[in-house]
Design brief:
The complex is a heterodimer.
Chain A: H1 6-18, H2 23-35, H3 37-54, H4 64-75, H5 81-84, H6 87-93, E1 99-103, E2 117-123, E3 129-136, E4 141-146, E5 157-163, E6 171-175, E7 182-186, H7 189-198, E8 200-207, E9 220-225, E10 227-228
Parallel strand pairs in A: 1-10
Antiparallel strand pairs in A: 1-2, 2-3, 3-4, 4-7, 5-6, 5-8, 8-9
Helix pairs in contact in A: 1-3, 2-3
Chain B: H1 5-16, H2 20-42, H3 45-62, H4 73-95, H5 112-119, H6 124-131, H7 134-146, H8 150-157, H9 161-179
The chains are: A alpha+beta, B mainly alpha.
Chain lengths: 229, 181
């Protein structure tokens, strides 16, 4: 009997989601779900409300062949997940312009003769400087100076500067100025720490105003590992 | 959690449009959580890997069916994942000749429910679970985290089948009333 009663629908939906609705009853419920928007919403209600429990289960990294098998089944051409999961890094490898940066800083507060700043220079393939990056460890400020040589990023596009931490997702630092302009950004303590630890920066081309997702979406045109002096 | 809701939604939307790179990113960002659930429920990495592969094949083919009413993209994928693992469990039980007890039930380290209740501060579910009678809460935990059937629940809790079913039903009903307050 189809569960027309609201309460009965909820009771079945809950047992469907936690898994105790089984066998023929489960299959029958799935058919009812296809016919009943209300029953579907009741199932989604329980799925949403139980989602926090899923965080209690420790993540486990699956073996690489799991991805290869999925790729082969869906597309017939297994490729290494690592090659595919970071297209912006891959794009960076094909970057047309190299970033040369010079770093002058001290990572240890207790080190003698602390240096309070570091400097980076972004150059194009012809060694033409494009941006100067000047960061102060003391004030947590990053000054981004665009030289007149910076090419226009295209209509409705911006250059976005990303910090690449040693682990985790890229962190947006700023939209880079163009045409000789200068921008001063205050870094959070975490950003500064990550920057000093990883020394990796990348610049991507994003829609005007920056990436809509909080992660690089466009081609990465410059990337480098900063060098400590 | 290392998940960005917008990012997963973006990858999922692009996957629905046939973007294989976005699908690879979706896999990279979510497969640890899903594989963890499969390993937990199935207790066997080979079966867990088979289930995981089925899940992502489904995710690829049905990515366009996701919408916000399903919860976050991870909620949606985790549901697909749990249902797949539950199917594997039921099939295993049928082939073993019925609802035999599971040895791992005797393992009584702090359960995932306790971990969840410690980690989901400020979530309404946390408060409501705490307010449940112990029998109700335990029946929900065993069903959700161990994939037990009614019969197995009754065995695990040392109660008649009717009582176990009743506890689960009342527990879920009480939980819903609390969540809707």
């Amino acid at each position: 009997m189809k569960p027309d009663h609201y309460e009965r629908g909820h009771a079945l939906a809950a047992e469907y989601v936690i898994g105790t609705l089984q066998g023929k009853a489960r299959r029958r419920f799935e058919r009812w779900m296809m016919e009943s928007p209300r029953l579907r919403r009741q199932v989604w209600y329980w799925e949403r409300n139980f989602q926090p429990l899923n965080h209690a289960v420790e993540p486990v990294v699956p073996p690489p062949q799991a991805w290869n098998n999925i790729d082969r089944r869906l597309f017939g051409t297994p490729r290494q997940a690592a090659e595919r999961v970071a297209p912006w890094r891959w794009a960076a490898g094909l970057a047309m312009v190299a970033l040369l940066a010079v770093l002058v800083w001290t990572p240890y507060p207790t080190a003698p003769a602390p240096v309070v700043g570091y400097l980076g220079v972004v150059q194009d393939q012809q060694s033409q400087p494009l941006w100067l990056l000047d960061a102060s460890q003391k004030s947590h400020e990053l000054t981004l100076k665009a030289l007149p040589t910076v090419p226009a990023p295209g209509p409705n596009q911006s250059y976005e500067l990303w910090l690449l931490p040693t682990s985790g997702a890229p962190v947006s630092l700023a939209l880079l100025p163009t045409g000789g302009a200068e921008l001063r950004v205050t870094l959070s303590p975490d950003q500064l720490q990550d920057l000093l630890r990883s020394r990796h920066l990348a610049i991507s081309i994003e829609p005007a105003g920056g990436s809509p997702t909080g992660q690089p979406t466009g081609p990465v045109v410059y990337q480098t590992r900063l060098v400590s002096l | 959690m290392p998940f960005s809701r917008e990012t997963l939604a973006d990858y999922l939307a692009k996957s629905a449009q046939g973007d294989r790179n976005a699908f690879a990113l979706l896999y990279q960002k979510s497969s640890g959580a899903l594989f963890g659930m499969c390993v937990h429920l199935l207790g066997n990495r080979d079966e867990a890997q088979d289930a995981l592969q089925e899940v992502y094949v489904q995710v690829w083919h049905h990515a366009g069916e996701y919408h916000a009413d399903r919860g976050t993209p991870l909620t949606w994928m985790m549901s697909i994942c749990r249902y797949r693992c539950l199917d594997v469990l039921r099939k295993r039980q049928r082939e073993a000749g019925g609802d035999n007890m599971i040895n791992s039930l005797q393992c009584e380290r702090p359960g995932p429910m306790q971990n969840a209740m410690a980690s989901i501060d400020r979530h309404r579910l946390n408060d409501c679970l705490r307010d449940l009678d112990e029998g109700y809460r335990t029946s929900i935990e065993m069903a959700y985290f161990r994939g037990l059937s009614h019969q197995q629940l009754a065995q695990a809790m040392g109660q008649p089948l009717g009582t176990a079913k009743s506890w689960l039903r009342r527990g879920l009903d009480t939980l819903r009333r609390c969540l809707s307050q």
